[in-house]
Amino acid sequence: MNPESTKMFSVDEKDILQEIMNIAFGNATADLAEVIDIYVQLSVPEIQILYIKELSDFLKSALKNAATTSIIEQKFQGEFKGSGLLVFPEKAGRCLVSILDNNKSNSSENTSTAALEKGALLEVGNILIGACVGKITELLNTFATYSPPQILQEKFNEDTLLAEFYDPLQTAIVMKTVFTFKQEDVDGLLLLLTNQESIGWLKKALNKFIESYE
User: Fold this and answer.
1) CA–CA distance, 17 with 33 (Å, rounded to integer)
2) Contact call for residues 110 and 65 (beta carbons, < 8 A)
3) How remote is the C-alpha of 107 from its chain's centroid?
4) Nearest-angstrom CA–CA distance, 183 and 65
């Protein structure tokens, strides 16, 4: 990890960001359960600040060297702007389809497995990213608008796709968590990629949040 990336936030700012993320993840859990009737337990997120160029090695380690992952991307705009990325190992799509299709034996007769997996990932990604970013912006007294989510496929034995789409010095706020769907544990990562302008706004907003409780 680049030492410079760890200096973007003070200790107090990182602590408040951690608390806000904890609240945001709780909000995401509730939204997912309400919309698609799935109870998902999210472990307390572990926050790290990285540059895009550092992500490939981080993802390899965090996802236990999975050969292929599914990456759901959703862009958000506003004072806090960037992209939300939900990163799952390839098996997550099958896991989600199995849960979503539970007790609906006829629902997949005319739909390919690939299409079902894509639909499940997009639905879950849209809810989780939207709920997390929405709660963060709400708590920091602003709002965000969203573009439709899309799926990126990533093979770690090739040049990283993330480097093609983003500036290598762009900032990534990485929130590592474990998604527990019913009896199935799926390692997943939620990343918020943003630019220096938004990092500057976020630092000011976090300090205002701190001051409001002093």
Assistant:
1) 24
2) no
3) 28
4) 23
Confidence at residue 100, expressed as pLDDT on a 0 to 100 scale: 64
* pLDDT score, position 164: 61
Task: Please compute the mean of the pLDDT values over residues 167-176 and round it to a whole number.
Answer: 74
Q: What is the CATH number of the domain that holds 118?
A: 3.40.1550.10
Neighbours of 67 (CB within 10 A): 11
Q: Which two three-digit tokens encode residue 48?
A: 């790290």
CA distances from 12 to 8, 19, 49, 142, 176 (A): 12, 11, 15, 21, 20
For 162, the domain range is 3-211
Q: How many CA atoms lie within 13 A of 205 on its CB side?
A: 18
At residue 144, the pLDDT reads 94
Strand-pair category, 184-194 with 82-89: antiparallel
Amino acid residing at 61: S
Per-residue pLDDT tens digits for 117-158: 788 788 888 888 888 899 889 989 999 999 999 987 655 544
pTM of the complete model: 0.78
